[in-house]
Amino acid sequence: MELLWKSSHISGGNATYVEDLYETYLKDPNAVPEEWRGYFDSLPRVNGNALQDVPHSTVRDRFAQIGKMRVRTEATVQQDSKATEYERKQVRVVQLISTYRQRGHQKAKLDPLGLAERQHIPDLELAFHELSTADFDTVFQTGSLHIGKADATLGEIVDAMERTYCNTVGAEFMHIVATEERHWIMQRMESVRCAPDYGDEVRRKLLRRLIKAEGLEKSLGSKYPGTKRFGLEGGESLIPMLSEMVQRSGGYGAKEIVIGMAHRGRLNVLVNVFGKKPSELFDEFEGKVTYTSSGDVKYHQGFSSNVMTEGGECHLALAFNPSHLEIVSPVVEGSVRARQDRRLDPQGNTVVPIVLHGDAAFAGQGVVMETFQMSQTRGYRTGGTIHVVLNNQIGFTTSRRADARSTEYCTDIAKMVQAPIFHVNADDPEAVLFVTQLAVDYRNEFTKDVVLDLVCYRRRGHNEADEPSTTQPLMYEKIKHHPTTRDLYAQRLIASGVITAEEDEYLVEELRASLDRDQPMVKSLVHEPNSSMFVDWEPYLGHNWDIECDTSIPIKRLQELGAQINQSPEGVPLQRQVNRILTDRRKMAAGSMEINWGFAETMAYATLLQEDYPIRLTGQDVGRGTFSHRHAVLHNQKDGSIYIPLQKISKEQPVFEIYDSLLSEEAVLAFEYGYATTAPKGLVIWEAQFGDFANGAQVVIDQFITSGEHKWNRVCGLTLLLPHGYEGQGPEHSSARLERFLQLCAEHNIQVCVPTTPAQVYHMLRRQAIRPLRTPLIVMSPKSLLRHKQAVSTIEDLASGCFQNVLPETDDLDSDKVRRVVLCSGKVYYDLRDARRDRGIDDIALVRMEQLYPFPEPDLFRILQQYPNLKDAIWCQEEPMNQGAWYSSQHHMRRVLFRHKPEVYLHYVGRDAAAAPAAGYMALHLEQQERLINAALAAD
Q: What residue stretches are annotated with the Transketolase-like pyrimidine-binding domain (predicted)?
């Protein structure tokens, strides 16, 4: 393009020449010079049509636009003449403006301490563009530059660019493909040079917020010296930033804002943004709290309140989170999506997510990428998230950029979704206010993610017990003498006459007095919140896990519904095997064919929807099912459109959402956890592609699903379907790591089930939704049993049955003759039964543990009582001895056996202890499987 500018003239008298060139190009692109070919290739298309379809009028209009960027010194220029010196400089000025937009952020004054090394940017030098200070008085056309006039001197242009892009705001937005978004940002920034002329009252309000932020930290520091609090000192501008976000979002009509953040500044945010009473915080430091559960440290706790904004009352929720960095981000997104769904708000206008990040974590944690990747997908989008990076420029003790990341900025990951990034110096509160308003407006305008990088520092160590100068001596020597943000801004306002020194001192004393009087720091706090903004969790609290639950349904209604949802939709040609599946399912509904897993599962969803229970089902292959058993989403074979029968049950039915997720476990499962903690009614289900892959989300399982209720009193009814079973497919496609879940079981925190029949999965899913208990359900779901000829049920089993925690012997054995009972779980039951039948054994009973936790001791005892002559008991599992249910469940089984027959000892049969979950060789797998079956059925 540069060659093009140097060698061609595309306005005025050259228009005819250019059109002739273009005509030649349309016939043969190679017949025109390369620089012209490249230019014509870059011309816009019309309505997406090919270049050859672009009318000459479009080309002429484009030439006319570019021609306006020229100041002609001659009325007509011959086609072979060279551009004048002035014209060349005009082009260079345009290039200079573009460079400032592209790279001005690299020259910006972002570090309050002035320690960050910035590389020299030659592109931003006048000489690079063949310009000099001698041209400062020359008038050029400003083109797309938004400075209020069409012509300006080079000096004015450079001054505008320096103030806009190289001062205390550094903007990255030129990577955005959408022209409309880029120009919107340019206009907003350039028109005010990133420094709006705020009124005195706005400036005073900014100062008061900084005084509150600094004052709380000083108060905590003096009251509780050396106690961990992860203070905000050095980043106090976060408080006016968040306060403005809340107010401005509320002005746009937001009714709820969900905020996620890690430790740094959390206590300050609770008091100065959410309105938590200072005395409540002080009581937590002093241990004056009532413990109703195991609890968590104060900088992990969530909170909620209501504040008044220009747009009305707005509910604020701060998400609970553990120390695992960034994992709260997708949890927030899930909670926001549930709230938006409840409000019937697909655009995300009424509920806004705000997530705060640390700079090192933002760059280092993979879940950040996963969360960004979700942001515009159908199943997970929330209308744009406002990301705030509290950039201390140090990660614990790692401050060298060469050690902390491979990118220039910690925020570069956000470019993958073309999010604009606004870096801002935290010691310039007015710049902070400006970019905050800009971010909220961008999110409201384009419903996309936006990132604010608040470049600050950490006045103390990682926590208040650390000595930071040990590892960062130069930084902390500078910090020791660096004034606080509040002090700097107060001096600025005093110098400009906005306040006097006496007024500043009065405001500081007023804050101290307010803390002493225990007054809420948030003036807009609503003391009697609108209760309609809250979800009523009361019906779901205080229930035992064995609460009675009727999951039966009249058989006639069941059959009618089964026929309805398995009808081939008119005018939707389906793939041949799918048509066959629907035909078979109609036979199952009629009772003329035994029921398989896919029919039972979809019927569980259908009946729940008919009974007004909403359902959300996500995972990597959930529409079809990884093992091609579900087929809840039907695909038109002609046009690729989809049809979902479970969404067509009735006009009044609740929502049925089913989404094939992105290839993620951690962020997606965290999202669904957040969703389930906000939506108590119905079912929220995540299915792993293979149960083994759930270990990619172990943080979510450990820190939220299994412990969230006891740490934070957060009730959650999330269901996990984890395909599990030893089919000889190797160590990564066999085990959902049952042992890990059982090891995490305590205090009735989760349910762990291993259903082995279609009727069992039907009643299990219905039970999870219908009974008011909201406890996570972990299902070791099958693979080969999905089509196993013996793993079938009848329509009557669905209509009149219920979920059985323990399934008794099903063959007609003489209970008096039974000398051994084999307790087992999952697919191995069918292998044992087949072998027993083949060998004619009639004195060994097979009992299936369908629920392993909470362990159903009374149910197992009732079944064992049928065998008065029992001599022997075995636990048989497919998993290695150090895995599966053996170590976590044997004491339960032994206790029941002792109660029935004290002399009967429980033995283990299964694979030997192993490091890997399963064998990778089919021959070895079969050998191991045969060995354990033989051992379980062997004679004494």
A: 595-788
